[in-house]
Design a protein that fits this description.
single chain, mainly alpha, 3-stranded antiparallel sheet, disordered C terminus, binds zinc ion
């Protein structure tokens, strides 16, 4: 009988036992596994046990039909206390003989460690690794920390493992050619590379601050591979809040080294979205100076954001972002940085938002509701909606702005977001899909016997009833009153629509205006 029951899909939470349990159960499991048939379809990846042992990407059918995975022997031998008793009883009832497992089947902690050591050596190469060791890296400690730490239910890695992974990434980002440069800059700042290494290379708990300046200096290393420099730039995110220690050096690079703009931008991007950023007191006056300096508009906003992330000043950042959003050039970006996108999955994700932005923003947005350009008013309305309940005092002004037919539906949306932020998204989505169905007018097809561009019809907007004469050849039309985009659907036999012939130039065809830009 085929049971097809899953066996030993367990997720141990403890380290593996140093010595394996080799008894009847383990040997029965081993014999059955050796007689198993590999499943046809594989998984997309392998499974990593808490202890660092890896499965293959296949399932295995045991001779009795049970389904298991390639870590089955490992689990009963090295995680015996975490295997449920019922599963041990099932294995005990196997009648496929008994075999002694080999090292590969057992995947004991020593074998796993040896595998990690080999891959560390392979990634870094013996020369580079030798230099790191000479500067104080304890390779054994690094490998032990890189082993395991995979949490159950895909919850990621333990902190200790993340800590080791981050250091290893940094070590890999620095090419061998750049090591003398790194030594120089460390010696310049610290005098001695070993004393730096005692902090910067100590596993676990390496000092992130010790890396900030040397990494910033490596960005300047011109003889290296540009790819490595880019990876170095991306390493700043691994320093967390301590990346702020490099802020002055990075801004200087951004100002003076034009060819590094892109890479410096990568480093700054992560730093700019790190709340609780640590900024050395000596860097603060320079940041305030940069915020005021309009000769570097991009750096102005970066500096303002760094001040905000360091909790020193949020007003500059909010003002700059609101200005940017209202101008419409980067509305989505500015709105994401202001409001935060932690629960968004698309767009500018991962932005923490600026707490309390509404206090600074409300009066500016209220003033923008009076702007002569309707698109500026539209952007202000959208941002007010993002304020949620904090926009309470702006309701009257918003309602007034909604008297403009172009802005009415946007004001309705904003009011929904302000009054019932919890359910607004759903309501708006529903409204949009019903609007989409409504956003069409049906007209008869073009008469092939008449010149194409002499055929017009009276367009009546299904939303605002605005009417104008429009060419029958159009497939869509943006209502010039409410700005909604309406499909023009051609169907034979539709007579209710008023057709207008014009051999001469009676009604001028509507201008082909670009649709509104909804930033
Ligand atoms: Zn394990
Ligand atoms: Zn309309």
């Amino acid at each position: 009988m085929i049971s097809n029951k899953g066996l030993l899909y367990v997720e141990p939470s403890q380290a593996a036992s140093p010595t394996p349990v080799i008894d009847d159960v383990t040997q029965k499991m081993c014999a059955a596994f050796r007689k198993a048939r590999r499943s046809d379809g594989g998984w997309a990846g392998v499974h990593e046990c808490m202890c660092g042992a890896h499965s293959t990407c296949w399932d295995y059918h045991l001779p009795n039909g049970d389904l298991t995975n390639s870590l089955c022997v490992h689990y009963v031998a090295h995680h015996r206390s975490e295997v449920p008793a019922k599963q041990l009883a099932r294995i005990n009832a196997f009648r496929f003989g008994e075999d002694k497992p080999n090292e590969q089947e057992l995947q004991g902690p020593e074998l796993v460690l040896a595998g990690i050591r080999a891959s560390v050596e392979e990634y870094l190469g013996s020369d580079r690794l030798g230099t790191w060791v000479a500067w104080g890296l304890d390779v054994e400690a690094l490998c032990r920390s890189l082993r395991g730490g995979c949490l159950a239910k895909m919850a990621g890695f333990t902190e200790a493992r993340q800590d080791a992974d981050a250091l290893f990434s940094i070590l890999c980002s620095i090419e061998e050619k750049a090591l003398p440069r790194l030594r120089e800059s460390v010696q310049h700042a610290r005098g001695d590379v070993r004393s730096w290494g005692a902090e910067a290379l100590c596993v676990p708990g390496w000092n992130r601050e010790a890396w900030a300046m040397p990494l910033a200096d490596l960005m300047r290393f011109a003889d290296g591979d540009p790819i490595h420099r880019r990876v170095v730039a991306m390493s700043f995110q691994l320093l967390g809040t301590h990346a702020g220690a490099a802020i002055t050096a990075l801004f200087d690079l951004a100002k003076w080294a034009r060819d590094l703009q892109y890479d410096v931008g990568l480093a700054l991007r992560d730093i700019k979205s790190t709340p609780g950023l640590f900024v050395p007191p000596a860097a603060v006056p320079g940041l305030f100076e940069l915020v005021q300096d309009s000769s570097y508009p991009e750096l102005q906003i970066s500096a303002a954001l760094v001040l905000a992330r360091a909790g020193l000043n949020t007003e500059h950042a909010v003002r700059a972002l609101i200005r940017m959003a209202l101008e419409g050039k980067e509305f989505e970006y500015a709105a994401a940085v202001l409001c935060g996108t932690r629960n968004q999955t698309e767009g500018y994700v991962g932005e923490p938002g600026i707490e309390g932005w509404g206090n600074v923003a409300s009066p500016i947005l209220l003033a923008a509701l009076q702007a002569s350009d309707w698109q500026t008013r539209l952007r202000a309305i959208k941002l007010l909606g993002r304020l949620g309940r904090d926009a309470g005092e702006t309701l009257t002004a918003l309602e007034k702005a909604g008297e403009d037919p172009k802005l009415r539906s946007h004001v309705e949306e904003a009011l929904l977001r302000i009054r019932s932020p919890g359910s607004a998204d759903k309501t708006i989505e529903k409204k949009k899909s019903s609007e989409k169905a409504k956003a069409q007018v049906v007209v008869p097809p073009i008469d092939r016997n008449k010149p194409r561009h002499s055929q017009f019809f009276r367009f009546i907007c299904p939303f605002c009833l605005h009417s104008e004469v429009v060419g029958l050849w159009y497939t869509s039309k943006t209502c010039s009153n409410c700005q909604k985009s309406i499909r023009i659907v051609k169907q034979p036999g539709r007579t209710e629509c008023e057709l207008i012939d014009s051999v001469s130039a009676t009604p001028s065809p509507p201008e082909r205006k670009p649709g509104p830009t909804y930033y």
